[in-house]
Specification:
Layout: E1 19-25, E2 30-36, H1 53-65, H2 70-83, H3 86-99, H4 104-116, H5 120-133, H6 138-150, H7 154-166, H8 172-184, H9 188-201, H10 207-218, H11 222-235, H12 240-253, H13 256-269, H14 274-285
Antiparallel strand pairs: 1-2
Length: 286
């Protein structure tokens, strides 16, 4: 199953679904930047091992030996998706669905490719089809929820995430993305709980640490916020949001030189990242 990676990258800024929320911190005259996993990012994480020529050649050999097996096309389509060869991935998912029109996993996989290429209408249709076939498919609820969130339809997105959670999903995206919506609504304690659950399911991504840190900071718990931002940096030093969030805590502590260095690092990673630019401008003026 293809999965949307939960990782934001400064290199993915051109992606149409990338979203950044700015959460005002009451009475402090500062703002904290939050990284939102609106698919961020590249909706599909490129995996050189799964998308290697050798792996795809092996999968092609399997298809040649049994061309009527839809699962083989689904697996190779996933490999093509991981390799960034989206046209070939779509062709394989189309073939899998031709062979088995009720192959709901292939619909969800094809939806992710459509989303990655910007065809949101086709992506929504495929998620809906997957759910018509299997109303208990958590992956499709999460994927469709992400489309709703991308469109600003937060109530519908929340319902889909909560449906996935009610199905006992172990996919951390359901909790992470639910946390983002709770955060936008100012329900920070609930957001912290959601991000913590996401972390418990997958602790290798910086996004839920950034998200949880933002809510900690909104509650004036700078110690826990700082710990989360630092951990996000340890996990991936290429994420501008993490450095900018760390800088804000330094700024709130009055550690101006450290704040400037962290804002500068964020700006170096992503020259267009506005919170870092604003932070540098604010500190240099003062």
């Amino acid at each position: 199953m293809l999965r949307m990676t939960p990782r934001h990258s400064s290199h993915a800024q051109s992606a149409p679904w990338r979203a950044v929320s700015i959460i005002a911190l009451t009475g402090l005259g500062l703002a904290l930047a939050g990284c939102q996993t609106a698919a961020p990012i590249s909706a599909i994480s490129i995996d050189e091992s799964q998308g290697s020529e050798q792996n795809i050649a092996s999968l092609t050999a399997v298809i040649r030996s049994n061309p009527g097996n839809p699962e083989s096309y689904n697996v190779r389509g996933a490999a093509y998706g991981r390799a960034g060869e989206f046209r070939k991935a779509l062709a394989d998912f189309d073939k899998a669905l031709q062979l088995n029109p009720r192959f709901y996993q292939a619909y969800a996989n094809r939806a992710l490719i459509h989303r990655n290429t910007g065809d949101i209408t086709a992506a929504a249709a495929d998620y809906n089809k997957a759910l018509q076939i299997n109303r208990n498919y958590d992956v499709a609820y999460i994927g469709r929820g992400n489309l709703y969130r991308q469109a600003g339809r937060l109530d519908e997105a929340m319902r889909d995430y909560e449906r996935a959670i009610a199905l006992d999903t172990t996919d951390p995206r359901a909790y992470h993305n639910r946390g983002l919506i709770l955060q936008l609504r100012g329900r920070h304690r609930e957001a912290i709980e959601a991000f913590s659950t996401s972390i418990s399911l997958s602790s290798e991504s910086p996004e839920p640490y950034n998200g949880r840190g933002i809510s900690y900071a909104a509650l004036n718990d700078d110690e826990n916020a700082f710990a989360d931002f630092n951990h996000a940096i340890q996990l991936d030093q290429s994420v501008a949001e993490s450095w900018s969030n760390q800088a804000l805590i330094y700024e709130r502590r009055g550690e101006t030189e450290k704040a400037i260095r962290s804002y500068a690092r964020a700006s170096q990673l992503d020259p267009d990242y506005q919170p870092a630019r604003d932070g540098l401008s604010r500190l240099r003026k003062s």
